[in-house]
Amino acid sequence: MSTTIETHVGSPRRRVDGRLKVTGAARYAGEVAAPGLLHGYVVSGMIAKGRITAIDTAAAEAVPGVVKIFTHANRPNVPGGDADYQDMVAPPGQPFRPLFNDRILYSGQPVALVVAEDFGTARHAASLVNVRIEAEPHETDLDRLRESAYVPPEKREGIAPPPEPRGNADAAFAASPMRVQNEYRIASEHHNPMEPHASTVIWEGGGRITVHDKIQGVKNSHDYITAVFGLPPDDVRVISPFVGGAFGIGLRPQYQLFLAVMAALDLERSVRVELTREQMFTFGYRPGTINAVAVGANPDGKLQAIRHAAVAGTSSFEEYQEVVVNWSGLLYHCDNIALNYRIARLDTYTPADMRAPGAPLGVFAIESAIDELSYALKIDPLELRLNNYADTDENAGKPFSSRELRAACRQGAERFGWSKRQPEPRSMRAGRELVGWGMATGIWEAMMMPHSARATLTADGKLELACATADIGTGTYTILTQIAADSLGLRMEDVTTRLGDTSLPEAPVEGGSWTAASAGSAVHLACEKLRQTLFQHARGMNASPLANASFEHVQFRDGRIDLRTAPSEGVSIVDVLRAAGLDRIEEQETAAPNAETKAKFSQYTHSAVFAEVRVDEQLGVVRVTRIVDAVAAGKIINPKTARSQIIGGVVFGLGMALHEESMLDHKLGRFMNRNLAEYHVPANADVPEIDVIFVDEHDDKANPLGVKGLGEIGIVGTAAAIANAIFHATGKRVRSLPITIDKLIE
Amino acid sequence: MPDHALPEARSEILPIDLTINGKQTRLNVAPWTTLLDLLRLDLGLTGTKKGCDHGQCGACTVLIDGVRVNSCLVLAVMKDGASVTTVEGLAKPDGTLHPLQDAFIEHDALQCGYCTPGQLCSAVGLMREGHAYTAPEIREHMSGNICRCGAYPNIVAAIEQVLAR
After folding, report:
1. Residue A1 pLDDT class (50, 70, 90 cuts)
2. The domain containing residue A326 runs over which residues?
3. CB interface of B with A, residues 142-161, below 8 Å
4. Which of A166, A352, B44, B78 is deepest in the core (most CB within 10 A)?
5. Are A317 and A350 in contact (CB under 8 A)?
6. Does the beta-carbon distance from A23 to B88 stay under 8 Å?
């Protein structure tokens, strides 16, 4: 590729699926039509633990238009055994089995599915189903179970347990002249994507089904369905080209999928099951977490000891795990570290991965503690962090593949104007409001997964890319299009990208910020192969100007293959296909992480978040007025969509800091605020200008493209930065998120 | 549980006239059908989204006689004779995008796209209302439309750009 022309990769480009989304043409899982489509409406239980003693469906069944009501008592036999419910991202344990038996495991559990000819009838009839549940004592209070919390014996795949202790944290902490020791809490949260979960199952006849599911990985739904329902793999196709937000709650197949497939197979008709917003609070959530952190330092600010122990909830049937405490051993150089992570079984549904699962919880704790230490030491919080900078991954004893966190801190501080900060709390004001400036750092893994992709060039010079991954709004359609257009020298308009379909080359679930690296590398490899194939055909053409050229001497540009040294000498790729008598050239490749590099280097993205808040002293109202987030995440493929990823993460962090809280009533064992009025996610007026900086970071080890992923890093340090800014404004340290008015004025 | 026997009205299907995206339509609807369900389920106009069905998220925003409304809170029979514009009706018949649609793409004011039709209809209504010009005013008056992807700064920038024309 010539360096003199502007490449698509690295340049801001408009989202290729933008037009479909602004015209309403993009169809989501619950919007696919089918002849004779039936509508299912879920009846939810409202007891946290117990046994169903009776379900009276007579009144509902009498409603004209009701086709069938499924309960545990009459559901069709499901051939799959207990283990067949395990999906690709299931934690250890027994996944929830909808309508399995009379046991009630959590409040909100689906207890019946009403299937009717139209939606209104199904909804009405569902209100007539009378369920009797014999309640048993339940426990949903993490505080009460804290002492019995345990280290999960079986580790969840892909979740690193805390590293072994280093040095002697207890002794070093006791001997430290400066000590901070506190407890930091984060409330449970629900993902609340704008699109409620939905599955439309199209009955194709002969036992075959096409499933439109809200899922971050079609293969996960596919394999779940075929295992649970005992269907041949080829009889099930799962499609999910557009996902109306997921943030982790689309990783695992949810109960509406089971119910829709069950009904469709039983009735041999097409069935759609859409959940209500209230029902979006009846499955996975970010687990409320309690962090106990102790940080010891010398008077010069050198860290001597870090202890971080977290306790989080899981369900009674699965041992959900995420990485909460490990970050505290990664961010700073410290010789004495002890990290601990335990879980406790609650009578709720199993928690689910939610944007940067674990990281913003643990980072809120350690970055609050470091901030507290900075005030105790009277050292600038940024300077304190830089003075304890970790140059290597001390958890793993490995170098980082790249780590421009120092540059992120400096560039972020410069843009924010950090040097003008008055160090004393309550020292800055604007009118009747106190002004606070705070900062924190963030960290997330830069991962890559095995991933396949296909590139097909057709006789008209158009390219089609295909792989099964999902674009949940992250921009995957666009960046894959950019990578391929650059590789083959095509206009982006000549490249079509297809995603979210099990008939396409295999992909892992979309998540963890690994999709750009994984899908991008696969597309890169497939296009590279296609270039070589094309070049061989080009050389073989009659009187080919490239007959004596080598691959290194040609460039792909403007739909042509030309000599680099003489760009007018070459052939158009349309002519190459024509001359070869081909209507298409198709190449498929699989990209996988380099095991050797992975063993040698630790791969992480980093950020430095700076926040300004204004706090009305009398009313306790907090406004975030400014955020600067400087991110070091390797190569940025599309600055436009990349910025959106970071902004979105920051807004999520703002919600965590100030608004979001799923409130459990422990007497009822139920989340009470199951709607978007009482569960406040940030609205437009809550969100200020967000200034995103992408720090130059060259990483030749993470993957062939040098990208590290952006979906998670935006949220990680944000809540801590806002909390630290609130302390700077008010002098009041709130160690429990969200920081609501009551906590500030009490 | 109280007796919820279905009222006799079940069979009372009522005829209404709606102009939807410029096209006059005679429809027979059950009195409890919301405008949102009518659009999505009966007319296949799925561009209008259902995010909460409670008027709390704005995903279902449409324009009724030019005024932005949460269509999940409107019973279709109450709007006999009204003119409804959905996201499908914003672009010109020749496919030329409404300036706001183009600005949304240009400013990347969307990610997953599920709130986008509501944001667009809401922004069209906002501009007609004529009381929001600055970024803080736009933020305030667009706060009935939740974007969980957090595209707010870009949504504000897109609307500002079109307002400035």
Report:
1. very low
2. 145-189+285-447+599-745
3. 142-156
4. A352
5. yes
6. yes
